[in-house]
Design a protein that fits this description.
With about 290 residues, the chain is of the alpha+beta class. The chain contains 12 helices and 10 strands. The strands form 2 sheets. The protein has a 5-stranded mixed beta sheet with strand order 1-3-8-5-6. It has a 5-stranded antiparallel beta sheet with strand order 2-9-4-7-10. The longest helix is centred in the middle third of the chain and has 20 residues.
Length: about 290
């Protein structure tokens, strides 16, 4: 049984027995389920990617400890391993697209491969009425295909329709964001991969620059241009989010978190955390759970 303050991890749970790791949830129907409702309002970590598209209703959604408001036309992007929770409106009507990394890799092309880069893009996107209508048509087509009996064409059709939907969203998502030049893209994507898979406190800007075979100055130029952060600021922010996620796991002691992110001692982690959050890790953890219990 899950302890009160243990971070709930939600794996991808297929509704059907088919070998398609993609599904669409109708939130209006699911909100009638009391247990499901409670789980959504409690901080939880997704082990898959999720896109929620709001058709009607207003409320709040927290993604990696930042709270965003939603209304008709809002799209919420949650990447695998991000921590999230809803403040739900019972009258909310939205569709949630859930899919695994494997399914995403089977449909993406280079132009949309960065859809879940949460350090580059905002977590939310506001669609116009016209674009929402176009997206809704695509959702209906996907829903219809998911309901059809399985055959050799079903998965390919769903992948094609889903790619079309992602491209429509990407068209809106890139507005106001500096497009990555071809010559920088390989370096940026490699840096992103390294940070997501290796970053700890002891790793410095020069370590990543050396791994990428470029200068620290070049790396910071690229990061500043496309994320509005220096490399140091990027690494600090990424590490801070990582620590916050660990803090919500009641099964981890502070010493265990220190070991995971490679601080030499607890006091240094506390100093690092307090520098950015103005509170200690334990104060942050307590405030987060009090906020959710209120």
């Amino acid at each position: 049984m899950k302890k009160k303050n243990e971070l709930l991890e939600i794996p991808f749970q297929k509704i059907s027995d088919e070998d398609i790791e993609f599904q669409i949830l109708d939130m209006k129907k699911l909100l009638n389920n009391t247990n499901f409702y409670e789980n959504l309002e409690t901080p939880h970590r997704l082990k898959f990617n999720s896109i929620a598209i709001v058709i009607e209703g207003e409320g709040e959604h927290t993604i990696d400890f930042k709270t965003y408001t939603y209304k008709k036309g809002t799209v919420l992007f949650v990447a695998k391993n991000q921590v999230t929770s809803f403040k739900l409106n019972p009258n909310m009507n939205s569709y949630v697209l859930e899919f695994t990394e494997g399914f995403l890799c089977g449909v993406v092309e280079e132009s949309i491969s960065d859809m879940f880069d949460y350090m580059r893009y905002p977590a939310t996107l506001q669609l116009s009425e016209e674009t929402l209508d176009a997206i809704f048509i695509n959702i209906k087509l996907l829903t219809k295909q998911l309901e059809l009996p399985s055959d050799e064409y079903k998965k390919s059709i769903i992948q094609s329709l889903f790619q079309s939907l992602l491209i429509q969203l990407k068209r809106q998502r890139v507005k106001g964001v500096t497009p990555i030049k071809t010559k920088d893209e390989k370096i940026y994507n490699r840096f992103l991969y390294l940070v997501r898979n290796t970053h700890k406190y002891t790793l410095r800007v020069e370590d990543y620059a050396r791994e990428l075979d470029i200068s620290s100055k070049t790396l910071t130029r690229i990061l500043s241009k496309y994320t509005n952060r220096t490399t140091k600021a990027y690494l600090d922010e990424f590490l801070l989010i990582k620590i916050k996620r660990y803090l919500l796991d009641e099964g981890l002691t502070l010493q265990e978190i220190v070991n995971k992110v490679d601080f030499d001692e607890i006091t240094n982690l506390i100093k690092f955390f307090k520098k950015f959050e103005k509170v200690t890790p334990s104060e942050f953890k307590k405030a987060t759970y009090l906020l959710n219990d209120s």
